[in-house]
Amino acid sequence: MRRRRAASAVPVVLFVLLLAVVWQLGTTLFRVPHYIVPKLSDVLVSLWEDRGVLGRHFAVTLEESLLGLAISAVFGTLTAACIEGSKLARRTLYPLLVASQTVPIVALSPIMVMWFGYELWSKVAVVVLFTFFPLAVNTADGFRSADAEIGEWMRSMGASRRALWTKWKLPSALPGFFTGLKLAAAISVGGATLGEWLGGEAGLGMYAKRASNLLRGEAVFAGVLLLSAMGIGLFLAASLLERFALAGRREVRREGAVW
Amino acid sequence: MRSEAEAVASIPERRLALSVQGLTYGFPGAAPLFDGLSFDAAEGEFVTLLAASGLGKTTLFRLLAGLLKPQAGTIRIGTHADRKPENPEHSPASPGKGRVAYMPQRDCLMPWRSVLDNAALGLELAGVSRQEARKRVRELLPAFGLADAETKRPYKLSGGMRQRVSFLRSMLAGGDVLLLDEPFSALDAMTRMEMQLWLLSVWERERKTILFVTHDIDEALLLSDRVLVASSSPVSALHEIPVRLRRPRRYEDVLDGTFADAKRKALALLGRREGGGSR
């Protein structure tokens, strides 16, 4: 299993290496100005030289993303449970939840700054804006996908409400929850970055923005590379968590081919 | 004379595990499914309801399991005399007395639970601690041919094994009556035969009251003490065919003359419905 998974990663690694070579050769051969596209080698040098500062900014952005994700996971699951548990909530919350997606989150984000100030919590709030919807909706769908016949059997055996939730609905919703978590993990970094742009003193988004003001292309790219690495890392962490939590279920083995 | 008197005297002794009186039910806006239906099952008896598809077997089970309320009539489950007649339907909120254990047609196992934990679910719902439930399941797994499957997830099991887990789960849930809803209908012929004989062997050992529903005449006759044939819709009366075959039964009993007679009778009853052409 493990070896096959490692082998399946070979093509993508080779492709990334190829892109790196094209980047390096292209910028060198065509003498692209460094403030348009810096040479890859310059970006790597910048990454290395600025590693102390970048590390601190990385930690800030990671903290914002993780806090936002955690808050969305808790409240998204609670919202999904309300939608599942009450007909009234399903008819009021669910449509509202979907409608909320027509509001441009980017336009809402400055409000978060007004409410939560220029420190950590305004960024966390923007991350929550980005990640709440996929978590809540996918978890709600997970609850709905619970095998009704199992629930009926349990009810006929006199199962309590509590038993129905803990032994049937919650385990049934886990796959949906993890689908939501993976999506949310991938976009959480974007939310944190936007939050930092709107007003912040630290974080990789802020770092990249400042570097762009100084026309330091290699530093901008260094920041962006780290941001996407963080997004990929969070996604992989969520996938790993999923594999662990759903171990032994057939569904995971089927789609688990990628990661 | 004397033996006759004894036989008569023993009739009130026949303790009913299940008693249905004047049951009426129909879905809103549709023709009624049951109209004044009455039948019963004695303690330790194996009774089969034989009916063509579409006569409302599954609805009947849902009524007996307390998932639906009858529009008229009473359903008494268990020998508990203190059940209130004004509350005939088994209320899922008050487990304990007079319960049925229902085994659905589809196995309905939880994909996230192992064989052991799936089988233990019924006990858990009955209030047994998880540890104790597992212990009791473990003791029974070998007899159910599941000794090596304890830690396996349902998707790794064959159809027959899944049904055995489902049966064990329902049996351990501890009802007075076991309701089996066409449990073998999805199995191939060979597995099906194996499972029928297996069910008989379990029943010989446990002597649970079983109400079995099927549309397979051979299956009904092979397994049961009595077969109740539903031959018209709405179901109002059931024709009873007692099966006078010895116990324990073997598969060769289907070649017995008694079996053939009973089968002829069942075919005639079911055929009359098709030939009736009243609808």
Written account of the structure:
The complex is a heterodimer of chains A (259) and B (279). Chain A is mostly helical. Chain A has helices at 2-8, 10-29, 40-49, 51-85, 87-99, 105-116, 120-144, 148-156, 161-198, 204-213, 217-245, 250-255. Chain A has 2 domains: 1-31; 42-254, Orthogonal Bundle (MetI-like fold). Chain A has 12 helices and no strands. The model of chain A is unreliable at 252-259 (pLDDT under 50). Chain B has 279 residues and is an alpha/beta fold. Chain B has a single domain, classed as Rossmann fold (3-Layer(aba) Sandwich), CATH 3.40.50. Helix content of chain B is 35%, strand content 20%. A 6-stranded mixed sheet of chain B has the order 5-6-7-3-8-9, sandwiched between helices. Chain B has a 3-stranded antiparallel sheet with strand order 2-1-4, with no helix packed on it. In chain B, α3 (115-125) packs across α4 and α7 (217-223) packs across α8. At the A-B interface, α8 and α9 of A face β5 and α3 of B. Chain A: Keywords: Cell membrane, Membrane, Transmembrane, Transmembrane helix, Transport. Chain A: It comes from Cohnella zeiphila. Chain A: InterPro entries: MetI-like, MetI-like_sf.
Key terms:
heterodimer, A: 259 residues, mainly alpha, MetI-like fold, 12 helices, globular, disordered C terminus, B: 279 residues, alpha/beta, Rossmann fold, 6-stranded mixed sheet, 3-stranded antiparallel sheet, 8 helices, 35% helix, disordered N terminus
